[in-house]
Hints:
This protein is about 50% helix and about 10% strand. It has helices spanning about 1-30, 35-85, 90-115, 150-155, 170-175, 200, 215-220, 265-290; strands spanning about 120-125, 140-145, 160-165, 185, 230-235, 250-255. The protein has a 6-stranded antiparallel sheet with strand order 3-2-1-6-5-4. α1 runs antiparallel to α2 (about 35-85), α2 (about 35-85) packs antiparallel against α3 and α2 runs parallel beside α8 (about 265-290). It is elongated, with a radius of gyration of 24 Å. The model is unreliable at about 130, about 240-245 and about 290-298 (pLDDT under 50).
Amino acid sequence: MRNAWTAMITLLTVAASVVSLVLAYQEWFPSATSEGKLAIIVLTSFTLLLSFTVALQRFRFSRRAAYGDASRRLNRVFFEIVDASQRGTSSAAHIKAACQESVNALAEVFTRITGSRCSACIKIVEGDFGTGLGDDTRLKVVTLCRDTESDQARRRPGKNQDWIDQNSDFEELFAQRSAKRFFASNSLPWLSDYKNTSFEVYGMPPRLGVPILGQIVRDLLWPLPYRSTIVVPISPKADDDQVRAFRVGGYFCVDSTSRFVFSTRMDVELVRGVADCLHPIVSRYCSLRSGSYRGKKQ
């Protein structure tokens, strides 16, 4: 992957600069005068600072270039979604195909941007959409579609129910506990209170009562196939961001096998843009399949 190669070349360049400086330091410093030693120290510090600055800028511009490449792929996705939403006669199969195209595209886009294997999926709320957590109806999510590659890789024996109140990301957004209107984490193993029903399939992470060491062990033995995630609600867009009168009909989820790969400032907005665009056809899909997307505003 291009980002991985760029990072490797950048690290090798910095490492070569450091090695050259160390060798020169060992050769010249012992025999230099006081003024010469001071000059060597200043020159070494400046060269190291310059090397790391160049490496950082190279990484930043490489990632921005990846966003530019991604925009071309996303244009096709938005066309498919808009086309499906404008067709009043679109069937559930046609809508699902458009959704499948969107998750495949987002998985591909984020894999290129982050340089790590990413997956994407759309989950819809099953139950009475007007009810909140704590009412008699216990709500859960079901997967509408998942990108093709991860769908094959994550098929495992065992069936778990994805209850909203047993998944931190879904629960927080559904109950409107997140003022940011998204759930994002670049290091899930380090969230000690993180809940996920997938633990029932992949196994529970270890819990040690020793601070720091327990977190390190939990990170090393993390059972889930992803360590970073972005989850945004699929819901009607509020006229005012300060007004939280919305209902959650589903979720758009993107995750990565690696840690510290997502940019909260840029990547969340990218996922949110697709989720907002998807809401009309996801709503119609639910209506066509079960007639249950009739929730009232909370």
